[in-house]
Amino acid sequence: MSVDIDSPEGQIIRKMVPFSTMPTSVFKVICDKIMIETARSGTLIFKRGDTESDLIYLLKGDVSLEVDKLKMEIIKASSESARFALAHQLPRKTNGVAKGTVRFFRLNTIYISTPPPEGKKNSTAGSREIIKNNAEQWLSTLLMIPIIRALPPANLHKINAELEEINYEKGDVVISQDDIGDYYYLIKSGECLISRKNSPQGSETKIAKLQTWDTFGEAALISDEPRSETVTALTELSLLRVSKENFLTLIKEAALKFVTAFEAEILLDDGAILLDVRPPDEYEKLHLDNAINVPLYTLRTFLKTLDKEKVIIVMCNNEKISESAAFLLLTYNFSVNIWQGGMEGISADVLLNAAQTNANTSVHDDVVFDKNKPILNPPSVQKMSEVSFISPLESENEQLKKNLFDLKLQYEKLGKEKQALTEKYQQLFKQCEKLKTMLESLKK
């Protein structure tokens, strides 16, 4: 369970180094990553020679720093030494042994790296400046972006090592429509405008204004197509950029989630929203009757109308456009899944059913979300030449899929029960600790 920044333990952590100097917004994100542990007397919390990149902080109790059973020092939670991580040098020089019951937490070093001081800027052509990051860290910006914050620490380490900062003046063009995609951008400070032209001779359409902690540039990297939009600096602009290769391997692959048609139907029955992100002409030719058409290039304008409490499933022809759409939605903290295989992966009988439905309804009727119409129901009446005979193996496969889904539901239920029992145990443990404290005070 994460730590509430206003709780007694949150206030203790706030006084530790380096948390005491962090902006509140960054400290809150870090508290979401903290899991407090309890150890009984004699427990080995860490051992000599450890090389794991976790820093360990003591919240309550005493920890003995020992080498071959020789006690070097005892750290008390109330001491000045406890404001710092225990035996933070790697590999660790000592063992850490609990003396009595202790409470502590571990935190990967990536989460407490600090941004570098502002240095002098070196001018380059067109008032654009690129500052190599080298070993400096830009964690305070990265942690403000939901899709980056959720990445494994190892990925964050690698991204930090390769980040570049690039600065623009007001009016500078950052990327142009039809450029080849080469970087993914994160806004460290400033504002920029996204716009596009539907034709070379057409007028420019303003799509969105982005500001600090927003991101852009992922669509061309995912689709491997030219840039579909132009981005222009509205103010002085400081960006962090990630190369295409690092974006694809460290961010995209770790972030995107796919669901099968069977899993998608279950989610839709539970109230999920199906977004078809293909162009309108493709959508009108053939689409699933539950799908709402929101083309990728208009998705940013629809973000405020989407319900973040609901799961979103995105669909296109073959996953490519869906990946870009899903990534954009994840950036804004939506819960998103991609329909695996897209329209090309849907069985012929389902597509036939969809085609028959589309022929009898208008495009405007189709955008009404009707969760009472299962996507995967086969057509009730067809010509004999159109009937798909299901082999015994296919039938058995469907049954196995249903059994697997039932097991998943049971697993989730048991997981929730376990979490509830864990929380109850923690409450009882706290009450027990309070009673012990009261008993000790009465003995005195």
Query: How many domains in all?
Result: 4
Number of helices: 14
List low-pLDDT spans. 114-127, 362-391
Percentage of residues in DSSP E strands: 15-25%
Name of the CATH homologous superfamily of the largest domain: Rhodanese-like domain
Q: Biggest sheet, open or closed, and with what strands and sense? A: 5 strands, antiparallel
Please render the helix and strand layout as text.
Layout: H1 8-14, H2 24-33, E1 35-39, E2 44-46, E3 54-67, E4 70-76, E5 95-108, E6 129-132, H3 139-142, H4 146-149, H5 153-162, E7 164-168, E8 173-175, E9 183-189, E10 192-197, E11 204-210, E12 215-216, H6 218-223, E13 230-233, E14 237-243, H7 244-255, E15 258-259, H8 261-269, E16 273-276, H9 280-285, E17 292-293, H10 299-302, E18 312-315, H11 320-331, E19 336-339, H12 348-359, H13 363-366, H14 392-443
Task: Describe the fold and architecture.
With 444 residues, this protein is of the alpha+beta class. It has 4 domains: 8-112, Jelly Rolls (Sandwich); 125-254, Jelly Rolls; 256-388, 3-Layer(aba) Sandwich (Oxidized Rhodanese, domain 1); 392-444. It is 34% helix and 23% strand. It contains 14 helices and 19 strands. The protein has helices at residues 8-14, 24-33, 139-142, 146-149, 153-162, 218-223, 244-255, 261-269, 280-285, 299-302, 320-331, 348-359, 363-366, 392-443, and strands at 35-39, 44-46, 54-67, 70-76, 95-108, 129-132, 164-168, 173-175, 183-189, 192-197, 204-210, 215-216, 230-233, 237-243, 258-259, 273-276, 292-293, 312-315, 336-339. Strands 1, 2, 3, 4 and 5 form a 5-stranded antiparallel beta sheet that branches. Strands 6-7-14-9-12 form a 5-stranded antiparallel beta sheet. A 5-stranded parallel beta sheet has the order 15-19-18-16-17. Strand 10 and strand 11 (204-210) form a beta hairpin. Helix 5 (153-162) packs antiparallel against helix 7 (244-255). The longest helix is centred in the last third of the chain and has 52 residues, at 392-443. It is globular, with a radius of gyration of 27 Å. 27% of the residues are buried. Mean pLDDT is 81; it is low at 114-127 and 362-391.
